[in-house]
Design goal:
about 50% helix; globular; binds adenosine-5'-triphosphate
Length: about 220
């Protein structure tokens, strides 16, 4: 199986932006939110199992999962949530595993798992955990700017997720995304720009470079280049 980094972070921390930067360098990107949507769209492979478990009621007219209806059900009914959790996360994990096996010649894969701290099945698929982190004020500003949520709504979503300190405890590597996009790209780049992209990724992997700016291992960036 391809060497795989699990990429996680709180809402709006910059996971998609970071994964796009890795994609530019040749990494295979597998996003578990995309997988979850694909499996539950019309004719998605999870639909028959959902229909068998919950009946037609939570399947929309187009044959997709009725997300709003299911969200309301599992919010109100813990037993229903457990039934859904027995179905969907295993299907998502199997699909992620299939896609990792098909990742082809990429030097390594980034598996984007927003809820990685609560997802042991996904953690078994990754060899390292990379956390995208930023301070809460930055996170709030980005969420509000992007989605037009109120500050209260944005804070409520942050509060419902794994606390920042807990998430950081899982990290083998951290990207601090408090700066601008150039600063972010520098951290993802992680070695001299004249190196071919694939080589950069390989060096990055072999030296287990921490992306944290003050970590002494980042010296490898210069010396390796
Ligand atoms: P979600 O949890 O909702 O999936 P995410 O963690 O994938 O979000 P992004 O979508 O990458 O986060 O970033 C959130 C918003 O912040 C986007 O509008 C993105 O363009 C912006 N953003 C991310 N990083 C930076 C940065 N360093 N400078 C400026 N804007 C940024």
């Amino acid at each position: 199986m391809i060497r795989t980094i699990g990429l996680t972070g709180g809402i709006g921390s910059g996971k998609s932006t970071v994964s796009s930067l890795f994609a530019e360098q040749g990494a295979a990107i597998i996003d578990t939110d995309d997988i979850a949507h694909r499996l539950t769209r019309p004719c998605g492979i999870a639909i028959p199992a959902i229909r068998a478990e919950f009946g037609d009621h939570y399947i929309a007219e187009d044959g997709a999962l009725d997300r709003a209806g299911m969200r309301a059900l599992v919010f109100a009914d813990a037993a229903a949530r457990h039934r859904l959790e027995r179905l969907l996360p295993p299907a998502d994990t199997r699909q992620a595993e299939t896609e990792l096996l098909q990742a082809g010649t990429a030097p390594y894969a980034i598996l984007v798992v927003p809820l990685l701290p609560q997802a042991p099945a996904f953690r078994r698929l990754v060899q390292r955990v990379l956390v995208v982190d930023c301070d809460e004020a930055t996170q709030l500003a980005r969420i509000i700017r992007r989605s037009r949520l109120s500050e209260v709504e944005a804070r409520a979503i942050i509060a419902s997720q794994t606390p920042r300190a807990e998430r950081l405890k899982l990290a083998d590597d951290i990207i601090y995304n408090d700066g601008d996009l150039d600063a972010l790209a520098d951290q993802v780049g992680c070695a001299a720009p004249q190196l071919p992209a694939k080589q950069r990724l390989t060096i990055c992997w072999e030296y287990h470079i921490s992306f944290a700016p003050n970590n002494p291992t980042t010296k490898h960036r210069a010396t390796t280049a």
